[in-house]
Design goal:
single chain, alpha+beta, three-stranded antiparallel beta sheet, 2 helices
Length: about 60
């Protein structure tokens, strides 16, 4: 199973509460921060919800 590098590229200031919670659940705090997550359906779903705020690359 591949890993995903998820980077927060836009601020969550004007985002809905559930989107802010999703970004935080992914482990992202500040704009420019990155995390490595295992590629799984739940993680893909979270990414889909906030795809306009994050950048994803497979590693």
């Amino acid at each position: 199973m591949a890993n995903l590098k998820i980077t927060l590229v836009r601020s969550t200031i004007r985002s809905k509460k559930d989107q802010k919670a999703t970004v935080e659940a992914l482990g992202l705090r500040k704009v420019g921060s990155s995390v490595i997550q295992k590629d799984s359906p739940p993680i893909r779903g979270m990414i889909k919800k906030v795809e306009h705020l994050v950048e994803v690359e497979e590693i």
